[in-house]
Design goal:
This protein has helices at residues 2-11, 76-99, and strands at 21-25, 29-31, 47-56, 61-68. By secondary structure, it is of the alpha+beta class. It contains two helices and four strands. The protein has a domain at 1-32 and 45-85.
Length: 113
């Protein structure tokens, strides 16, 4: 399995239609987050947030989604919604990249007559 994953990663490129995404939830974080929790906070209900990461192997970029567990869990509906959000953002980025004019190779050479 790991060998096939690495082969797919090598085939992925930003200009191609081959995309490899790695997704995972990080450890939940309680807010406010402090190394030493003051005693008055111990019995309070702290906000617990989830961090969901999507790594694009072709671009070597990761997008993290941070949301409160009060508004969403870690089930399949949340994962599908976050992947759909990433797909919309990634599609918009690719459209912007195609529309951005790229300088020609010879732009640095100026010809004067």
């Amino acid at each position: 399995m790991r060998f096939a994953y690495r082969e797919d990663q090598q085939l992925a490129s930003p200009d191609d239609n081959h995309v490899v995404l790695t997704i995972d939830y990080a450890q939940n974080v309680s807010l406010p987050h402090a190394a030493e929790t003051p005693s008055q906070w111990f019995f309070l209900s702290l906000w617990s947030v989830s961090v969901f990461g999507i790594h694009n192997s072709a671009l070597e970029r990761q997008m993290n989604y941070v949301y409160s567990e009060r508004f969403g869990g870690k089930g399949p509906n949340e994962v599908i919604s976050l992947l759909a959000s990433y797909d919309r953002a990634f599609s918009a980025w690719r459209r912007a990249q195609r529309k951005t004019p790229r300088p020609a190779q010879s732009c640095s050479e100026r010809r004067t007559h």
